[in-house]
Every structure is written in structure tokens, then in C-alpha cells.
Amino acid sequence: MTLTTRGYLPEQYSKRIRDQQREANVQRKSFRILRLFDLAVLRMSLLALRPFLVKQRNLSLTLLRCSSSVPPIFRQYATGSAEKQTPSSKSLSAGRDRTDVSTDVRPIGERVKENTKTASYMGVILLGVGVTGILFYVVFWELFSSDSPNNIYSEALERVKEEPRVKDALGAPIKGYGEESRRGRRTRVAHTKYMKDGVEYIRMQFFVQGFRNRGTVHLEKRKTESGGYEYRYLFVQLDYNPHSPIILEDNRLQQDAMRTTTSSLPQPFL
User: Fold this and answer.
1) CATH architecture of 156-264
2) Closest by Cα among 196, 135, 201, 209 to 166
3) Can you list the positions of beta strands (E) in 102-185?
4) Do 253 and 264 contact (CB within 8 A), yes or no?
5) What are the pLDDT tens digits along the chain (270 aa)?
6) Number of neighbours of residue 204 by Cβ within 10 angstroms
7) Where are the domains positioned within the chain?
8) Is the pTM value of this prediction over 0.70?
């Protein structure tokens, strides 16, 4: 690793360090979010199963008390009568035994009520699992999809930071941030998606600031036939000179002309 005469790192090495730091921040955020989701699902499951477990424990205690409250004389009589049975009576009694007799002596209404509660608890658990799966999908899409608003913002910000005209106008180092939320955080990046002529577009706006000046970044992308996004425009509007923006991308005329040419082609006769 070599240093320049001014003591700064080469541009390629500094960009590599920034990429590694950004990947590390994304991994830490995703791990933190996954951990919070796991704790939330575990807590919801325990809260849903708690009433059911309490009722089962109370029922077991009731059965134990009933069995312990039987007088010893009845138990002795039952044992003695079983010992005095002849083989023929044993075979007859075995034939009369039924294995499908339920040992639950509670009323039918109470059993129906208990089964309904159990089904409702299971429904709550399944609903929680489904909501958690949806949240996992949204989080993974936001963090790892190249077409997510978060990644579009990161890519545009890196491109703005590397633009020499922006560095000269704002002053390096340059940082980017979104709109300020109610808690005073600037993490919300304003964006909107819309459809036009069957094509999906995304429009975004965020802010950049150097040690000299500030500016607003405006961008718009359109979805191509391959499924990716391409820039329609990308420019930086300076606060001290809003009428002279720094244009990094402007493909509106080319894309509009291509769409007009495609729409004017003769359609096949069916």
C-alpha cells in the first residue's frame, strides 16, 4: 500500500474500504433485525400457549385428586373380586370390555368450549408464523435485492460521491441522508413507484452535504424488459444555485423516442 505526497490513500483503495464498511453495516443490521424477529415470535408463541398449558395442568391435578380420594375398601374390594374371577368369567368380562370408551367425564358443552379455545390458540400461532414469514421476506428483499429502494439509494449515493463536479461544488467528504422523521432521524428516503404505459417507474429524492454546501439528489428509474432498472435521470440540485444542477444521467429523450418508435410499429394482423 503506497501513499501520495499529501498523505491520502489512493482512490481505488478508499472505495474498497467504503464498500467493505457498507457490507459490514448491512450484515449487522440484518442480524439485529432477525434476532428481534426471533424474540418476538417466541414471545407470541409462549403467550398463546400459556392459557392452554395452565388448563391442562389444572385438569391433571383434578384427576390425581379424584384417584387419591377413592376409599381403600373399594380398591381392596375391586382387587379381591378380580382375583376371585374364574377363567370363564375372565373371558366373558374381557369380551365385554370396550377399548373405545372415553375417560373424559366432563360435560359435552365444556369439552366443546375447550376444543374451541385450543383451535383458537393454534390459529393465533399460525397467524403469528405467517406474519413473521411475510416480515422476513420484506426485510430480505429490502436488504439484499438489487431493485429495492434501499439499494437504489446506496448505488446513487456512491455515484454522486464519486462525481468530481459534486466534490468540487459541495466539498469532500460528502454524506447522504433522507427526510427527517418525528424522532429526529434522517433515515427515511422519499420514493414512489408508479405505472405508465405498462412500465414500472421509481422516483426518489434524498439530500447530500459536504463541508461547504448542500444539495438535493433527484433520480428516476424505469424497469426494463429484462427485469432490471435503468436511469431516466440523475442530477444534483445545489442549494446555493438551484438553477444550475449537476446532471449525471439524462436519458429521457432517448427512452421516450424509443418508446414512440416501438408504439408506431405496425402490429401483426391476427
Assistant:
1) Roll (3.10)
2) 209
3) 175-177
4) no
5) 444 444 445 666 677 777 777 777 777 777 777 777 777 777 777 776 676 666 666 666 666 666 555 555 445 544 554 444 555 555 545 545 555 555 656 677 777 777 787 887 788 888 888 887 787 666 655 555 667 888 899 999 999 999 999 999 999 899 999 887 666 566 678 899 999 989 999 999 999 999 999 999 999 999 988 888 899 999 999 999 888 899 999 998 887 776 665 554 344 333
6) 20
7) 13-83+105-144, 156-264
8) no
